[in-house]
Amino acid sequence: MMSSTTVRRLGKPCLALVAAGLIGFGGVPLAQAEGPALRPDMVRTLQSMQSQLEAGDDAAVAARAAASASRLEGGNAADRWARALFLQLAATANARGHQDARAADQFAEARRIDGVPAARRLAWLQQEARLRLRAGQTRQGADLLTAWVERSGGDDASRWLLVQARASLDDWSAASQSLDRLRESGTQGWSSSQRQLASTVYQRSGRFDDALALLGDDQDSPDVWRRAASLAQQAGDSGRAAAIWESGWRRGVLVSKEDLRQLAKLHIAGGTPARAAEHLAQWLGDGRLDTSADNLKLLAQAWTAARNHDEALSAWRALAERTGRGQDWQQLAEIAYGWGEWQKTLDALSSLRQAGGEVSGRDWLLQGIAAAQLDRRDLAREAFRQAKAAGVTQAQQWLDSLG
After folding, report:
1. For 254-269, what is each residue's pLDDT tens digit?
2. Helices marked H in 135-269
3. Angle between helix 118-134 and helix 77-96 axes, rounded to 10 deg
């Protein structure tokens, strides 16, 4: 089940992997043709560093290119363009040496230089964004990547990276907007992990119908439905979680005994306890659930939450008769008393004593009140005397009221 914590935990490795796969720095000979003409000696120096970089001497190129860029600060248009190219070389070398934050800073510096062609500035923006993400500077990287996508139109790989970045920041609204653009070209080619990420994003942004629409071929996977319902529940929408689980059950996917119990629990938590009770009654009746104490108790809780007095009291009695436990008879008495079902309160407490359960001072008090309400004054007096002996202070007031 994929929570926001899970997304954050998975985010950094995923971002690093995608960023590493997408960074392409381009060669200097190609780039230098875009700007002002350079002096021959400057061209030879750039080409020398490019060859050195291709030979794998990253550290030397990083230091040498950065020093060359520093010496050209404040020059004319050609010097500024050469400085930008030296910074590109330094950034490329640092990125290859896994100095991602330093490389990102150098790309940022290069694209701010006056006179850099717009196309090159845009390319360096993309490279800086990916390096920020790879360096763990997720928010800054996501903002930069968003800017690049908006200016360039982006591509699917960049948008998936952006979705992952925004999700790792819990920025679900922005992540869902990027997903919307990806869905415009269809979802047929999406991998299982991409569908899982997309479903998480849509659910966390409250767009459950969109999340369910993404289940696709995974609609026969119980884990997909469980994850969807769990995320809705984590988002505080138990009603939606119940609706999702119900859909999975009706589809014939969530049909194990524990799945049925979970559906009932979700209906109770989601504000539709009568639906839970109806399901449970049917499943207990046709054998899909056994009549264990746990299942009978769940049925009783469902009818109680639905405030169906007759069904709830009947269910609690069936449970108490099945278990013989004093606590179940006491629960029946408490519920009957709370609903003003006086005779059923007395019956439950009588059964408690017959079952050999421990009768508390409160039990005697409830019996006395129920008997008084039924105008059974002698029974009420005896119960109040027992309650008083057990230390219940209210008992004397009730005795006084009976005269």
Report:
1. 999 999 999 999 999 9
2. 138-152, 156-168, 172-183, 192-204, 208-213, 222-234, 238-250, 257-269
3. 30
Tokens of 158: 């960049």
Lowest-confidence range among 3-17, 70-84, 117-131, 200-214?
A: 3-17
Strand ranges (E), 270-342? none
With H, G, I as helix, E, B as strand and everything else as coil, classify residue 189. coil
For residue 117, count other CB atoms closer than 10 A to its CB.
Answer: 14
Convert the pLDDT of each residue in 354-365 to its tens digit: 988 899 999 999
What digits encode the pLDDT tens for the residues 223-243?
Answer: 888 887 887 787 788 998 999
Q: What are phi and psi of 394, to 5 degrees?
A: -65, -20
Place of tokens 């104490």: 293
Q: Between 326-338 and 361-373, two packed helices, what is the crossing angle to 10 degrees?
A: 40
Question: For tokens 């006084």, what's the residue?
Answer: 400
CB-hemisphere CA count at 13 Å for 247? 18
Q: Return the structure tokens found at 210.
A: 């969109």
How far is residue 130's CA from residue 112's CA, in Å, rounded to a whole number?
17
| pTM: predicted TM-score of the whole model, two decimal places | 0.61
Do 183 and 177 contact (CB within 8 A), yes or no?
no
pLDDT at 106 over 50: yes
Residue 184 corresponds to which tokens in the numbers above?
A: 């415009």
Q: What is the DSSP letter of 113?
A: S
- Helix axis angle for 377-389 and 361-373, nearest 10°, is 160
